[in-house]
Specification:
It is built from 13 helices and no strands. With 290 residues, it is mainly α. It has two domains: 156 residues, no CATH class; 106 residues. Helix 7 crosses helix 8, helix 10 runs antiparallel to helix 13 and helix 12 runs antiparallel to helix 13. It is globular.
Length: 290
Amino acid sequence: MKLYALDIPEEAAEIAGWLERHLVGTHLAELVAELTAVAGPGTSLSLRQLLTHHRADVLRRGLDVLGPEKLRLLLHQPALLLELQELVLTEGEAYWDRVPLTAEMRGAIEQAERSLQPSLKPKPRQRAESRAWFARPWLAALASAAAVLLVVSAWEFWLRPPPGAPGPDWGWARPGALSQEFPAPAYLARLAEAAAQWRQQRPQTADGLARRLADLRLGCTTLLLAEHRPLDAKTRDWLRERCRAWADKLDQQLSALEKGADPLQVRTEVDQIVDRLVDALHAKAKELQA
């Protein structure tokens, strides 16, 4: 199970390129769902309002023209990314053909070219017309799987949370768990206490444990995306580095569970991971108090 929001760059200068790769990739719906789970769907701005006079520049030169504040708005109003993808797919200029592709996308392109070539070969009278949509290799890859349609419809029907849908009521993903109004030692201690809530329920079935583990894993994403204002830069870096390591270990346990591992053994392994991360947070809190 891969969570794409974990790859959000820490440097603001890298955000534009990272988002561009998702806009021309095949996992934007998953990313939007993850961001929505943390930030909510965000409906205060329309895409037109966000782009304002930058619309033509975005289509011609990419997302760098928006600047850090508007890129941050995109992350906090992730539903707009789906609208932006549609705009880029239909009206984007040559810049968007040069966005670097992942190995996965290159494989999809090769498969799409093989399957689409016979049916998409233009007729002679069409050759002088403006550039056809299938001339964009990454768009052809998306279209080969009907991804444009499926991304939008799957998001609208399956991934958009219904109004008032509750999130986890425990751990780091619980509303208010990452309140920024505490001094650094207390802030870290509260993070430790929130993580320790893992032990308040002890599911024994694979399904129950998977749900509990997914809530814990969502908490890691929430923690990585949080501002951590009470912490200095060095401590923030430490926390995010540790959280990535914890997230990787939780991913491994969830994968083992999905492959048929004994739920009680997986739960024991997760207990140990949580105990270590709780100890690490308490130790860092005491270090900052010294």
